């Protein structure tokens, strides 16, 4: 068999396996949106079966043989006799396939089945526990999940911390040793700026955002913004869920969800924009590379950079609201007709410590992430017990943000992530914020009329720029390599901090000398 034929055979097999993952993803999407409440047990079995089948096929002798044609299966190096016949794209595809394969074959099939079943059941119990504010209801499931994730880390192997094995699933190459100093430096800047804002005489009137806003009109407005962002509703859809999320089964089927509250208008809109950023990434991946690593997002940090770029760099900008505020006033004339644009703009950019991560402002949001990172690190490393989490959570939130949850629903139960076993996921949110600031800074350099376009509701040039610089590459480059390639510099918090200081110094009339 020729090199080209062998590579085509590998790609074909990978696509078949991806079909199983996609079928499971459809069931998971349905579980979060339309599944009847009484169907939880069988859904867990269905998901476990599909994911186990996919796992078994991926670590099969057939894939091993096809991959072994090109790769040293022990080291991941391209075989010497193949180096000259494979271009950079093919070598990247093989490198990333080997990475996935080498990790997957360390996990026994029975373990994969058990973990998938437990995650599906735990998500359903978490939803019930959150509604009834009952951590004890969720505790047994969470304890089992923590043990399984600790076991997974042992199977995968790690250096220094078992958390690194889990973190590497979501942000390849990142380690605790890298994150700790990065987060510590960022936290210093955030706490300083937050203190200055607290002492500012300027305080927004956020009551104007908590009036009664018709929920169907809110969703329609979010849909309008999504469409103008370039989100293709012929290849996606917008639905409601308890926790906003995006899922995709192919670039032609990338779906987003939001949630809507009558007395919290920004929640629905910004979750639409946020998830729309994720959706645009999925729709922007190469259909030709579907099923292979080059048809997948680089990392969750890069994925999050897309949602945070659209939500914060665009959606909370003055240029954005120059265009959209008159339209919002037309939609809600009784509530906003007499409210000046500057007053509204200050209100939606309010900085105030709060309890709920997904509703947090762009400054304090990262403090929420640091709390979660520190807690789950201690849990996975076995330094704290799961039944201690509510108390530890409340203490850290008080330490970092100066607020204390009155119940577990607004505390330790607020996030869905641990219920589906996503330990190591949370740091990618802050990494995404840092990546987003760097990418948007570069986009402004490359497109002198970017802000003018945003002010006219023309988002397609930005979407095209992101398609070309981020989306189309799939996993051809690592996150660090992509950022270096696009911006010319390594990951840094400086652009993010600079943007916050400039924005909030203007909004809250802070002293430039004190905010530098």
SSE diagram, text form:
Elements: H1 3-33, H2 40-58, H3 61-68, H4 88-104, H5 109-132, H6 135-156, H7 162-170, H8 176-198, H9 215-229, E1 238-240, E2 246-250, E3 253-258, H10 265-284, H11 300-314, H12 318-331, H13 333-336, H14 341-348, H15 365-380, H16 389-401, H17 427-446, H18 450-455, H19 460-469, H20 479-487, H21 494-507, H22 512-515
Helix pairs in contact: 1-2, 2-5, 5-6, 6-7, 8-21, 9-10, 10-11, 11-17, 15-16, 15-17, 17-21
Explain how this protein is built:
With 516 residues, the chain is mainly α. 62% of the residues lie in helices and 3% in strands. It contains 22 helices and three strands. It has a three-stranded mixed beta sheet, with helices on both faces. β2 (246-250) and β3 (253-258) form a beta hairpin. α2 (40-58) packs antiparallel against α5, α10 crosses α11 and α15 runs antiparallel to α16 (389-401). The chain is globular, with a radius of gyration of 23 Å. It starts with a helix and ends with a helix. The mean pLDDT is 95.
For the largest beta-sheet, the strand count, sense and barrel status come to: 3 strands, mixed
Query: What is the H/E string?
Result: HHHHHHHHHEEEHHHHHHHHHHHHH
Helical segment tally?
22
Could you give the order of strands across the largest sheet?
1-3-2
Number of strands: 3
Question: What is the helix fraction of residues, given as a range?
Answer: 55-70%
- Strand % is under 5%
Shape: globular
């Amino acid at each position: 068999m020729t090199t080209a034929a062998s590579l085509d055979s590998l790609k074909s097999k990978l696509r078949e396996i991806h079909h199983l993952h996609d079928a499971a993803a459809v069931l998971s999407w349905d579980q979060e949106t339309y599944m009847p409440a009484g169907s939880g047990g069988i859904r867990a079995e269905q998901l476990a079966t599909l994911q186990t089948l996919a796992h078994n096929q991926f670590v099969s002798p057939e894939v091993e043989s096809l991959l072994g044609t090109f790769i040293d299966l022990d080291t991941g190096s391209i075989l010497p006799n193949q180096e000259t016949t494979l271009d950079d794209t093919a070598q990247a595809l093989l490198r990333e396939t080997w990475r996935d394969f080498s990790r997957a074959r360390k996990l026994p099939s029975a373990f994969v089945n058990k973990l998938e079943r437990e995650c599906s059941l735990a998500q359903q119990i978490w939803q019930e526990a959150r509604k009834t504010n009952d951590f004890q209801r969720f505790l047994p499931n969470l304890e089992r999940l923590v043990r399984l994730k600790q076991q997974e880390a042992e199977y995968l192997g790690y250096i220094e911390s078992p958390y690194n094995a889990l973190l590497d699933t979501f942000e390849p190459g990142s380690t605790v040793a890298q994150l700790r100093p990065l987060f510590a430096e960022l936290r210093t800047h955030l706490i300083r700026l937050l203190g200055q804002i607290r002492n500012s005489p300027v305080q927004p009137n956020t009551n104007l955002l908590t009036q009664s806003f018709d929920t169907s009109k809110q969703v329609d407005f979010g849909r309008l913004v999504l469409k103008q962002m370039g989100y293709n509703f012929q290849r996606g859809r917008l639905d409601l869920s308890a926790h906003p999320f995006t899922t995709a089964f192919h670039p032609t089927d990338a779906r987003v969800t939001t949630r809507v509250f009558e007395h919290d208008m920004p929640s629905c809109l910004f979750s639409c924009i946020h998830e729309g950023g994720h959706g645009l990434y999925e729709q922007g991946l190469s259909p030709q590379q579907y099923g292979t690593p080059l048809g997948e997002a680089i990392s969750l940090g890069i994925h999050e950079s897309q949602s945070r770029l659209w939500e914060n760099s665009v959606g909370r900008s003055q240029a954005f609201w120059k265009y959209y505020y008159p339209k919002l006033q037309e939609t809600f004339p009784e509530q906003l007709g007499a409210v000046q644009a500057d007053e509204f703009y200050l209100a939606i950019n309010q900085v105030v410590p709060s309890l709920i991560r997904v509703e947090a402002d762009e400054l304090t949001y990262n403090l929420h992430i640091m709390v979660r990172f520190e807690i789950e690190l201690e849990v996975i490393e076995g330094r704290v017990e799961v039944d201690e989490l509510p108390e530890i959570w409340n203490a850290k939130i008080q330490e970092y943000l100066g607020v204390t949850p009155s119940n577990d629903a607004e505390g330790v139960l607020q996030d869905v992530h641990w219920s589906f076993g996503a330990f190591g996921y949370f740091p990618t949110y802050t990494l995404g914020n840092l990546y987003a600031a760097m990418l948007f800074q570069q986009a402004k350099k490359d497109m002198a009329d970017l802000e003018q376009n945003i002010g006219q509701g023309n988002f397609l040039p930005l979407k095209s720029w992101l398609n070309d610089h981020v989306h189309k590459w799939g996993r051809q480059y690592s996150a660090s390599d992509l950022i270096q390639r696009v911006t010319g510099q390594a990951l840094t918090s400086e652009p993010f901090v600079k943007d916050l200081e400039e924005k909030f110094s203007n909004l809250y009339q802070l002293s430039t000398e004190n905010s530098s």
